[in-house]
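Appendix B. One record, verbatim.
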Amino acid sequence: MISFPAANIDDIYTEGNKSWKFNGTSWDSYAPSKNLVYSTVPPANPAEGNRWLNPDNGKLYFYVQNSWVEPQIK
């Protein structure tokens, strides 16, 4: 059983290779688009759900609500 953290709407939680997105009342399975960019700078003109892997810091980001965010991993 997964123990989800307290969350705000549209927060993303990842455990292993599966992600969920909080809809305000519950967690929904979340599969962002398959667009993954490997770059030291954020991609230009991203779409909702795009992913960006920054090799300088090794972090993965998702484009959600007009900004790049890190998944909530707890």
